[in-house]
Amino acid sequence: MIETTPGWFAPADLEQVRAHLPIVYVQAVPVRVDAAGEVTSVGLLLRISPDGTITRSLVSGRVLHHERLRDALLRHLEKDLGPVALPHIPASLQPFTVAEYFPTAGVTPYHDPRQHAVALAYVVPVNGDCSPRQDALDLVWFTPQEASSEAVMQDMTGGQGTLLRQALAHVGCLI
């Protein structure tokens, strides 16, 4: 198979890279805001994990070689939320946190059995119509209080619930 998309590795090559180097990711917490800029709802994707369980997740994906962070965020938001989600990428690309995922559970709150990954995490307001695409089954909007509930946290894996709570604290929705 010939790879025609620049920046993508063949599956075997990606496994080799993942075994030796941290991979850079962007993660986004899609939110709806009111006229005052207050977060009114948080969008979480519903997915089927490789082991067959249904989980909730954030928008997430790798940054390609020679790709700007802004472009990576837009690409993954469009991939997961659809082409008319109308995300508002912040003028400053200062993440609210950096999440370091390890293949060994317990090193940090974040775990990815495939790799060591470094994720720059952003809260991104979206104004348009969102419809899940790719491997997402659905997109559900929660109030910030519902999103931070134990019931929702139990559906999130790999430390994404921790990341979600950090995002909500960052925008003033958790005390």
From TrEMBL:
Membrane-crossing segments per the record: none
Keywords (A to Z) from UniProt: Hydrolase
SUPFAM superfamilies: Nudix
Hydrolase listed as a keyword: yes
One example GO MF annotation: hydrolase activity
UniProt-recorded name of the protein: NUDIX hydrolase family protein
